[in-house]
Design a protein that fits this description.
The chain has 3 helices and no strands. By secondary structure, it is mostly helical.
Length: about 130
């Protein structure tokens, strides 16, 4: 008998609950799963919170984009362009300020994505420990 939640195979037909995940087992016969189907079922049962994982990846992608654009725009502001009434020293100062600000923002946004992944990894680790007990 196979667990419908985690795909664990149980040979003992008298067991009411899955020994791996604790899911209630039914006495209805289930279709036999091959090893690939069991692996897919167990992996999909282990991946919780897919939207949070997507958001973490989007934060990381956004941080790379912010970093790249920040470097490009700060270099562009330091280039020899008309200053439009600004002293040349102010133009270079603004370029450095934009570079520093974009780096701080990119690193902060990357850290936010990593923080989400840390919480998801903690949840997964705690769940695995609870399943073993």
């Amino acid at each position: 008998m196979f667990c419908s939640k985690c795909g664990n195979e149980t040979n003992n037909l008298e067991v009411m609950f899955c020994p791996k995940c604790g899911n209630g087992l039914t006495s209805q016969p289930e279709l036999p799963l091959n090893s690939i189907q069991r692996k897919i079922l167990s992996v999909s049962a282990g991946q919780k919170y897919p939207i949070l994982r997507l958001i973490a990846v989007l934060y990381k992608i956004g941080s790379v984009i912010i970093g790249i654009l920040g470097v490009i725009f700060s270099l562009g502001s330091c280039a020899a362009m008309p200053s439009y009434g600004l002293l040349p020293g102010y133009q270079i100062f603004l370029g450095w300020a934009m570079l520093f600000g974009s780096i701080v923002l990119a690193v902060s946004q990357w850290a936010l994505g990593e923080g989400i992944m840390v919480f998801l990894d903690m949840e997964e680790s705690i769940r695995k420990v609870a399943e073993k007990e």
